[in-house]
Amino acid sequence: MLEQVRKWLNRLHEVAPGSAGDRLYLEALEYDQSSKEFLLRSRSEDWMRNAHGTLHGGLCATIADQAMGSVACCFKQGEGIIPAIELHLNYHRPLMPGEDVLIRVRPVSVTKTLIHMSAQLYRQSAPEKLCVSASATYFYKEMGK
């Protein structure tokens, strides 16, 4: 599964270089078979800050969505699209621009057309302190159907 996520992230870079998803520089680090949990890392940069000097909330949502969506893609075979149809976030602590973000992602449930995911975002310097928790539902539609 880890290799599938890595291939998906490489594909994103190839087909949409410079896009919002590509500029997060997501990297798949680990996969725990027993918990079905993935560990990803995203870069954050100074341009992502808000007026308070912390990572902009919308960009936190983008990181969570891109990480969960990239993992969700690996639960379906064949060509298709998997847009988010629902996304929820809770902000617990600020993420900081210029510091890498660790993202723990796991599937909650996978059906024929719906994939429910959850994610937790942490500062790389404090991986024990939850910053953002997220959940999302993705709709799978095969191409040509």
Provide a brief overview of the structure.
It is built from 2 helices and 8 strands; from the N terminus they run αββαββββββ. It is α+β, with helices and mostly antiparallel strands and 145 residues long.
Characterization of the model:
The chain is an alpha+beta fold and 145 residues long. The protein has a single domain (2-142), classed as Thiol Ester Dehydrase, Chain A, CATH 3.10.129.10. Helices cover 21% and strands 40% of the residues. It has two helices and eight strands; from the N terminus they run αββαββββββ. The chain has helices at residues 2-15, 57-72; strands at residues 27-32, 37-42, 80-81, 84-91, 101-110, 114-123, 126-139, 141-142. The strands form two sheets. Strands 1-2-5-6-7-4 form a six-stranded antiparallel sheet, covered by helices on one side. A hairpin with a 2-residue loop joins β6 and β7 (126-139). The longest helix has 16 residues, at 57-72. The model has no long low-confidence stretch (mean pLDDT 94).
Q: Taking strands numbered 1, 2, ... along the chain, how are they ordered across the largest sheet?
A: 1-2-5-6-7-4
CATH superfamily (homologous) name: Hotdog Thioesterase
Say how many strands there are.
8
Briefly note the structural class of the backbone. alpha+beta
Low-confidence segments: none
Helix content: 10-25%
**Binned strand content:** 35-45%
Ends distance: 26 Å
Calculate Rg over CA atoms: 15 Å
